[in-house]
Amino acid sequence: MPEPAPASAAKVFGERLPLAERYAEHLVTTGVERGLIGPREAPRIWERHILNCAVVAELIPDAARLVDVGSGAGLPGLPLALARPDLGIVLVEPLSRRVEWLREVIDDLGLPVEVERGRAEEPAVRRRWEGADVVTARAVAPLHRLARWCLPLLRPGGVMVAVKGESAPEEARRDAAAVARLGGGTPRVQRCGGDIVDPPSTVIVVERVPRRRKG
């Protein structure tokens, strides 16, 4: 069983806290059994995983279409779906065993979240999900590679939100030129949930820059 939800979880999930607790239970039981979460993560499932992802909701506009790339155990997509029922969310995940688990969990929680088996860079996936307002990713790839996969899924003016660690400022500086070549704006580092999680979640935000018309 997971650790009890911290008091701060109620601020994030409100009346949906019981669903978030159910999700935590899935993560530390079948999620561990099927290799989606390491067994050592169970004692810190709330702070390190669920809340770390859910607080990113403060960066996401109302009623946004959101694509979560490389979703794995549903992070950050499912915590965002639980915290923000106004969002339209699809989880993109290439591995069939993870897709099967995600669909089981979504069905159990009764969430209107779709799951796409595939990779963000595949043409069929791009055709189905392009035009998103937000694309999220957590622990998937370096920023320059994420930008290559994620920016084409966004509408002009949409944003990629990459959940990162403490090395985020260095990564943002290192990959800024590559991101620009791929059609992204200047990467900016933001901290989320300072009153919920310690340390706050660190994300890199990149806007898809509209193409300038020639002439």
UniProtKB/TrEMBL annotation:
Pfam family, one: GidB
Documented EC number(s): 2.1.1.-
Positions with a binding annotation for S-adenosyl-L-methionine: G70, L75, A120, E121, R138
GO cellular component: a single term: cytosol
Subcellular localization, as worded in the UniProt entry: Cytoplasm
GO MF annotations in UniProt: rRNA (guanine-N7-)-methyltransferase activity
Similarity annotation: Belongs to the methyltransferase superfamily. RNA methyltransferase RsmG family.
Function: Specifically methylates the N7 position of a guanine in 16S rRNA.
Name of the featured protein: Ribosomal RNA small subunit methyltransferase G
Annotated organism of origin: Pseudonocardia thermophila
